[in-house]
Each structure stands twice: as C-alpha cells, then as structure tokens.
Amino acid sequence: MSDNLASPSVLVISAHSGDFVWRAGGAIALSAQRGSAVHVLCLSFGERGESQGLWKQQDMTLERVKEVRRAEASAAAGTLGASIEFLDLGDYPLRVDEAAVERIVGVLRERQPDVLLTHVAEDPYNRDHNQAHETTLLARMVAQAHGHDRTTRPLGAAQVLQFEPHQPEVCGFAPDLLLDISPVFDLKTKAMACMTAQEHLIRYYTDLGVRRGVQAVRNGAPKTVTHAEAYQRTFPTVGEELR
Ligand SMILES: [Zn+2]
What we know:
Layout: E1 10-14, H1 19-33, E2 38-42, H2 52-55, H3 62-80, E3 83-86, H4 98-111, E4 115-118, H5 127-144, E5 159-163, E6 177-180, H6 185-193, H7 201-218, E7 228-233
Parallel strand pairs: 1-2, 1-4, 2-3, 4-5
Antiparallel strand pairs: 5-7, 6-7
Helix pairs in contact: 1-3, 1-6, 3-6, 4-5
The structure holds zinc ion (ZN).
C-alpha cells in the first residue's frame, strides 16, 4: 500500500503494447496528474496479432515491428505520465512461463501498487487478453503470500480493475465504475495518436469515450462530464456507508 491514500499507486498489466492506451489511457493520465505512481507492464509487443498497420509495409520483419511498437508504446506512456517496461513474451499466442510470473511478482512486491488494471477474464476473441487476466491474478496471489520470498514485502489487498474489452457484451463485461476522464481526454487523444500501427482504433475509442461519458451523466455524474472509461471490479469494495 502506498503511503498516500489520496493518490493510490497503479500497475497496469497489458497483454499487448497498445491495449493500455485504448482501454485505460484516461485512468493512467488521471492518476498520474494526481501524483500517483503509474507503471505499465506490457507482456508482449502485440507484434504478430495487433500491429496490422506495420505488416502492410514492404519487407517488414518481426524485430522491426517490435522496435516500432516499443517506441510507440513508450511515447504513449510518457504522454500519459506513466513509466513502462516490456517482457517480450510473444503474442498470438501469449505464453507466460514460470520465470515471467516470478518477474511480475517481483514488480508487484517492489512497487506495492494499490490498484491493478488489466483485461477481462473471458474474451472469446482474444485468448491473450484472458492470459493477461489470469497472470495478473496468479502473480497477485503469489505476491501476497508471506512464505513466498522472505526478503521482500508481501503485497496488500490490491484491487483489480478490469478495463473494457473490444466487444464487452460478448465478454460478460458489466461495468461498475464509469471513470470521468474528461479533464485528461486530450492526453488520451495524444497517446492514441502515437499508436500508428493500430490507427484504425483511434476513432472507435474516441467514440466509446463519448458514449461512456453520456452514460456517466445518466448515472449521476455532473453534466460537465464529456468522456469516461468503464471498469469492472474483481473484488468487493470496503466501506462504512450504503452507496
Ligand atoms: Zn491486445
């Protein structure tokens, strides 16, 4: 648990190098602006399955795609105010071996995030996203275990917020948080513009932000709210009030 409860620290576990931008860019920028430490862990570059724009270019190679995706995601993270690292585990399919889990556990214990952001559990279109979800819960569990590594501090009860999948109704996604990202939507737009290998998604996620913003107002947010991101909590919240 970070010392400053007003600005919970955030770790984002992203299956591919673009996912965190489309689905959680607003949350990242908002948290960073409020003084939270935000770190993004990309399990892969999305080099095979989520780099369509690059594979249309002549003489493209896997290594070149990875280089470009690393540069794009680093620029996007910098724009949003987050630090970023890449595990380069490969994609389509993403395979997370024991060494990778150990490494993620190490990051969790070192950074002690209050909140984890990752994918949903069951996306029939994208098994890599499911793998990232499972990896997050597995690493969280191990990081919490007191007998795991006596030289580092166990992780606390970090909430896991699942960000919105591409086709939410097919993934059983039922948001219980509509996060107002209106004040930082310009930053999300700039970060999305960094992701040239997936340019086709910019308009889609801009429209989605507007739609979720309308729904936030419908659910009680002030009329000044123009953009939102949807999240689903994995664990119950704790409180003393009925709300
Ligand atoms: Zn992805």
